Amino acid sequence: MYGELRMIPFHEAMNEYRSQMEHGVIKQAYRGLMEYIRDLRVHFETTVPGSFVTGSIYPGYMDMTYFSFTPESLHRQKLKIAIVFLHETCRFEVWLAGMNKRIQAEYWNRLKESNWSAYPLAASLQGVDAITTHVLSENPDFRDLPLLTRHIEQGVMQFTADIEEFLSIEQD
């Protein structure tokens, strides 16, 4: 696993890591990001009716950080919505995921067979936690956090409504 991620020897990467940590900017940015994601989670938990947040924030390995937000209608179908920050691209996405791999495969196949086109399906389910995804903010502006939160909320709510609409039509 470690060999897949590094381009330089591990000990050299650690020397660079130590150097960057001594500057303090990465630590400050990471702390600020985690505080914002915690506040975003609380925002969804307290202001979005008919929903609940499951689990806690997954901080990841500086690849992704996320929490799940699951409306009752999707929870009954064993689906969840994940609000994801991808560290490498510094962007926010929203993902539809299953509560387990079997559920995920079932819904991925249902969307694929229906020629779903509203949002891109994951190319495959191998090593992927999303059924379908949507970019919420390609280049988030962290200077105005309330505005960023509103933008993320609007995108998540539209994505969720689109998923719920598709599933209700499909079941009829």
Would you mind describing this structure in some detail?
With 172 residues, this protein is α+β, with helices and mostly antiparallel strands. 49% of the residues lie in helices and 22% in strands. The chain has helices spanning 2-5, 10-23, 25-47, 72-75, 101-113, 145-171, and strands spanning 51-58, 64-71, 79-86, 91-98, 132-137. A five-stranded antiparallel β-sheet has the order 1-2-3-4-5. Strand 1 (51-58) and strand 2 form a beta hairpin. The longest helix is centred in the last third of the chain and has 27 residues, at 145-171. The chain is globular and about 55 Å long.
Assembly level = single chain
Structural category: alpha+beta
| Approximate helicity band | 40-55%
Identify the strand order in the major beta sheet. 1-2-3-4-5
Instruction: Please state the average pLDDT score.
Output: 90
Report on the biggest sheet.
Answer: 5 strands, antiparallel
CA-atom Rg in angstroms: 18 Å
What is the percentage of strand-forming residues? 15-25%
Would you count the extended β strands for me? 5
Order of helices and strands: HHHEEHEEHEH
Low-confidence stretches: none
Tell me the span between the first and last alpha carbons. 45 Å
Q: What general form does the structure show?
A: globular
**Secondary structure tally, helices:** 6
